[in-house]
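hiii, so i know i said id send this last week but things got crazy w the move. better late than never?? heres the sequnce for the chain we talked about at the cafe, plus the structure i predicted for it. fair warning i was half asleep when i ran it
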Amino acid sequence: MAIRMNGWMSDNRKVVAEAGMFKVIEHQKDLSVSYPRATAAYFASQMNVKLRQVEINLDGTKGVKTQAGAMQMMLGNVSMETGIKGGAKGFLGSMVKAAVTNETAVKPEYSGVGQVILEPTYKHILLQDVASWGPGGLVIEDGMFLASEGGVEHSVKQISSSLSTALLSDEGVYNLCFTGSGIVALESYVPLEELVEIELENDTIKLDGSMAVCWSGSLELGVEKATKGLLGSLVSGEGFVNVYKGTGKIWVSPVAGTKESAPKQMSTGANETKETTGGGLLGAIFG
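okay and structure toks below
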């Protein structure tokens, strides 16, 4: 028995990234648009606004975990489980994790021999080897998880121990952390070409707003005033900054927000008040 997908790969569908069991398929143009939307769709494709799908190839040795509702089709001898262990108690724990990390409570697990094709998305797909981020693992911005190989462990990492930090930081108190070995597929509003990788060796980086896409779990995250005095921080327009300390690396988006609610914003003149998406609760009050 065999399944063949005739026409799946074509001049309009190309593999643009590949790692582990994952392939990223990019649709070069949206060919199914109606006449009124044709012009917008054309210029969207020219600006790299394209549909992308993840193809997962299962060989029976290990499974894959995905975000709930991400599956479009399964081919071959592939089975799916809920991924919830421990009955009602396990489900309650998953609900708590989902609430603090902006992820779904249920993450289906697929195993067997065949293929799993995920739903198309206009977001950019980042494939990352968890082991390459160091012994502390990989910590991601909320809502980025799409899929992970079976050797990758999920946990909720407490970024800050204080409520004040939670109110001031765009990163919140908890983030999803991956450890172990394997590849993870992440959905990002920012393409890989715009990201800057910064390596820290027992050093510090301070970021204004939600600029961090992901970072090493070995880094310590905190929040502090941009200047020494509270009044100085408020009148300078900078407010509070996110501070990453230690040894590891961090991916930074210097020209775009890492969240849908944080689009590109920049000053257009020296005397114009700077618009910012950062600063947390107090930043919103005083901004």
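btw The first strand starts at residue 13 and ends at 19. thought thatd interest u
miss u guys!!
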